[in-house]
Automatic annotation (TrEMBL):
InterPro entries associated with the record: HTH-type_LysR_regulators, LysR_HTH_N, LysR_subst-bd, WH-like_DNA-bd_sf, WH_DNA-bd_sf
Keyword Ribonucleoprotein: no
The HTH lysR-type domain, residue ranges: 3-60
Official protein name in the record: Transcriptional regulator
Length: 324
């Protein structure tokens, strides 16, 4: 088993370096030794792993599958080594998180401090969620936990686990004293076309919100809204809404614990997408103490805030009585 792992890690180095020569220099081994490692793996698995060309080598389709598994095994090996060293040295364990903007701004700031107090030797690395790469990154062990929307979990391999904590709703949002609230009729629902009388802000940090504004809103309103501001930062988008007459489609969870002028959902039949939210991780990590404590902290956070799994989330009243 150890011999096989050694050969697999050598294969990873070959692919990452792009050539046998550079990999041999990196590992301080001879090229024939690396060639023999590749041959042994190919004999064991029954398929070619590498394609050779003038510039070096690159993995075959099957080789990429093997490499993905190797990277996952490499990360698990690293975590096991960190656990063993933690008992006798000052080596720090590392938890790698990739999170969407709502988790980075609202959820994780309340969780990571207490988690760090419980695990003083833990180093936490937090990066922005990258929709095109995130699922691949967590599968291959480049990150440990993906925090955000769970819309694509059905496409993940069975080796991946997920935990749903709540559902967030996309709502048309404006500041609480926005003049459009004075135009809500007795029915309590603002006619959608009224939104065309005000400037719009488009949050571009997640492509889905651009699509909702560009397509869903246009289809529902009959023409394209007057987009005055495009903003990639969720925090900046909220701040602009607080200081202007702009309206925007945003997740309702972003309105919780917001300092400054309150923002509230607009009672209008537009922007009602319901999105599950939680975490995704590799199944072999389930018993790793930092992860189990992170999951417990998430459950406590959403339970304390009143967010529940059936999709109900606390927001300010969505009624005409809340208008100025």
């Amino acid at each position: 088993m150890i011999d096989l792992m050694t050969h697999l890690f050598r294969l990873q180095a070959i692919v990452e370096e792009g050539s046998m020569r550079r990999a041999a220099l990196h590992l301080n081994l001879t090229q024939p030794a690396l060639t023999r490692s590749v041959q042994l793996i190919e004999e064991r698995l029954g398929q070619p792993l590498l394609e050779r060309h003038a510039r070096g080598v690159e993995p075959t389709a099957f080789g990429r599958e093997v490499l993905s598994s190797v990277m996952r095994l490499s990360r698990q090996w690293e975590l096991a080594e960190q656990e063993l060293l933690a008992a006798t040295t000052s080596a720090k364990r590392v938890l790698r998180l990739e999170a969407g903007p709502l988790w980075r701004m609202v959820v994780l700031p309340a969780i990571l401090g207490p988690l760090k107090e419980k695990h003083p030797d833990l180093r936490i690395e937090l990066t922005n969620l990258r929709p095109a790469e995130s699922s691949k990154n967590v599968i291959e062990g480049k990150i440990d936990v993906l925090c955000g929307g769970l819309q694509f979990v059905a496409d993940l391999p069975p080796t991946m686990q997920h935990r749903a904590f709540t559902h967030f709703h996309d709502r048309v949002t404006a500041r609480a004293d926005h003049p459009l609230f004075a135009r809500i009729p007795k029915s309590g629902q603002l006619p959608p076309e009224v939104l065309l009388d005000y400037p719009w802000l488009v949050y571009t940090g997640d492509p889905i919100y651009e699509l909702e504004t560009a397509h869903a809103a246009t289809e529902r309103l009959g023409r394209e809204p007057d987009v005055r501001i495009s903003c990639e930062s969720l925090a900046s988008a909220l701040r602009v809404l607080q200081q202007s007459n702009c309206v925007s489609i945003l997740p309702d969870g972003a309105l919780a614990d917001l300092s400054g002028p309150p923002l509230v959902p607009v009672p209008v039949s537009l922007g009602r997408r319901r999105a599950p939210s939680g975490v995704i991780f590799r199944e072999e990590m389930l018993d790793w103490p930092p992860l189990t404590d992170l999951l417990s902290a998430c459950e406590e956070f959403f339970g304390t805030r009143g967010y529940v799994l059936d999709g109900t989330a606390p927001t300010q009243p969505d009624t005409a009585e809340a208008t100025p």
